[in-house]
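pasting for ref
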Amino acid sequence: MEQRYLDSIEHALAGALERIELPPLLGEPIRYALASGGKRLRPVITLLAAEACGSTSADAAPVAAAIEILHNFTLIHDDIMDRSPLRRGQPTVYQAWDDATAILAGDTMMGIAYQLLSEHYPPAVCRQLVAECSSAFVEVCIGQAEDLAFRTVPSVTMDDYLRMIGRKTARLFATAAVAGGIVAHASHDVLTALRTYGTALGMAFQIRDDVLDLFGSEDFGKELGHDLREGKKTFPTLSAAACATDPDDRAAFAMYLAGTPPRNRDEIERMRERCRRLGALEHAESLIAHYLSTANAALESHLPPTSARDRLCALARATRNRHL
C-alpha cells in the first residue's frame, strides 16, 4: 500500500487528538490503542473508494480517520469482553491500564470520531456519514452480543455464524467503503456496489482471522487458540463439527459446542488436529475465494477502471494471502 495513504490517515488521526485537550488518564490509553500497529485497512478502503469514485484522499481523510478511531473503540471493548491479553502483539488496553479506563477511553473515542465528521463535512454529507456510521455500530453491537451469546448455545449453525460476522466484522468494512463513496457524491448504484465489496471483503477477512487464530504462526500477534479457550463458535469449529462422523469426533464437538472449551494445551492441540483432519482449512479457503470474487466483481461491474479500483482489488488478494 502506498505510504501516502497511510501518511494521510496518521495526519488526520494526529490532528483529531491535538484538537481535543484530553487528560493523560484518557489521552495515553487512546494514543496507545491507535499506535498499536494496525494496518489501517478500513480507512485505506475509505480513501481508495473516494478516489475510485472521483474524489480525493484528502477529502476522505477525516472520515477515514473517524472510521479507524471507531474501529479501535470496538477493539478496546471487545478485548474486555473476550478477556484477550494481547492485541497486535501488545498488551490490550484493559491489561495495560484497567477495565474502567479502557471503557472510558473507548467511549471518548466514539465522541472524537463523530466530532471529526461534524467539523469537516457540509451538513448534507455529514448527515449521510453519521447515519451510515450509526447504523453500522448498531449492527456491530448486535454482532458482538450474538458472538457472546453463541458461547452457551449448542445449536449454533454455520448460517448463524455467517450472519453474526456479517454484523460484527463485515458491516464496518462495508461502511468504510460506502463512506468514501458518500464523500465523492457517488450514485446509489455505486454505493450499493461499494457496500457489496466491503461486506464480502469483511466476511473473508473474519473467516481468515478465525483460521489464523487456530492455525496461524506466533507472529500473528494474538494468543494462538484463544478463541478455543474462550469456547467461541468459529468457522473452523463449526465447519469441522458439521463434517464429523466418527463417534469420538462427534462427542468432542458436542461437548465443545455445549460450552466446554479445551482446558489445556494438549486438548487444544487435539481440537486443532480434528478441525484440520475434517477439512476446515479447505472449506475456509473455498469460501474466502467466493467472497473475494464477489467483492471484486462488484467493483469491476460498477466502477470505472482506475488505479484506485485496482488497489481495492489488490486488498482482496492480500486478504486471501494472509499466511498461516
